Amino acid sequence: MSQYFENDKNLKSEERQIDIYIKEEKLTFIVDHGIFSKKGLDFGTRSLLESIPVSLIKGDVLDFGCGYGPIGIYLAKQTKANIDMVDINKRALHLATKNALQNKVQVNVFESNIYENIDKKYDYIVTNPPIRVGKETLYKILLGAKEHLKKDGIMYFVIHKDQGAKSTMKDLEKEYIVNLLCKNKGFYIIAAKMN
């Protein structure tokens, strides 16, 4: 079975539309096979978006591992930030681009294997990281964010306690000021600020 962070050319396409409410905001997304959470907004991403202080977000924002686009598109609706959205999955990028148009937001969607194609620094990086890539790659994402955050930049991310939330927080404390924003049914919403 292919993973949502792989490009499986043999995977049949079957696009469909779903409506999602985040707080009071209604968003419409086109989803497909071969992407993360195609049935609707997953609980971790919802908890992340409902917990981070959206009213404070401004400047340059990176939606890392954007999938079909719920994080970046929601933030584009709620803020005046400049939003870049990256993923390694070409189908996800295609959908994120379509979904940005459908939800009438201006975002910059492009392909990147981890931070390979990222050449700027951000005020915020927001991600529901792909846990199934394994700890080594996960830590490349979480610790590598440091190289792409501005001086007081913050990375917001979500991770489940069963996927190592506590040990991840502890490991990140060597590089960031780490704060637990909230816990929701085992999901930890974490802010990692540049030290």
Structure write-up:
The protein is of the alpha/beta class and 195 residues long. The chain has a single domain, classed as Vaccinia Virus protein VP39 (Rossmann fold, 3-Layer(aba) Sandwich), CATH 3.40.50.150. The chain has five helices and nine strands; from the N terminus they run ββαβαβαββαβαββ. The chain has helices at 43-51, 70-78, 90-102, 135-144, 165-172; strands at 16-22, 25-31, 60-64, 82-87, 108-111, 122-127, 149-160, 176-184, 187-194. The strands form two sheets. A seven-stranded mixed sheet has the order 5-4-3-6-7-9-8, with helices on both faces. Strands 1-2 form a two-stranded antiparallel sheet. β4, α3 and β5 (108-111) form a beta-alpha-beta unit. It is globular and about 45 Å long. It starts with 15 loop residues before the first strand and ends with a strand. The model has no long low-confidence stretch (mean pLDDT 92).
Layout of helices and strands:
Layout: E1 16-22, E2 25-31, H1 43-51, E3 60-64, H2 70-78, E4 82-87, H3 90-102, E5 108-111, E6 122-127, H4 135-144, E7 149-160, H5 165-172, E8 176-184, E9 187-194
| Helix share, percent | 25-40%
Instruction: Characterize the largest beta sheet: strand count, sense, and whether it forms a barrel.
Output: 7 strands, mixed
Label the overall shape: globular
The fraction of residues in strands falls at: 25-35%
Class inferred from helices and paired strands: alpha/beta
Q: How many whole angstroms does the radius of gyration measure?
A: 15 Å
How are the strands of the biggest sheet laid out side by side?
5-4-3-6-7-9-8
Number of strands: 9
CATH architecture: 3-Layer(aba) Sandwich
What is the helix/strand order?
Answer: EEHEHEHEEHEHEE
Summed over residues and divided by their number, the pLDDT gives a mean of 92
CATH class: Alpha Beta
Helix tally?
A: 5
* Full CATH superfamily name: Vaccinia Virus protein VP39
Separation of the first and last Cα atoms: 40 Å
The CATH topology is: Rossmann fold
pLDDT < 50 runs, ≥5 residues: none
How many individual domains? 1
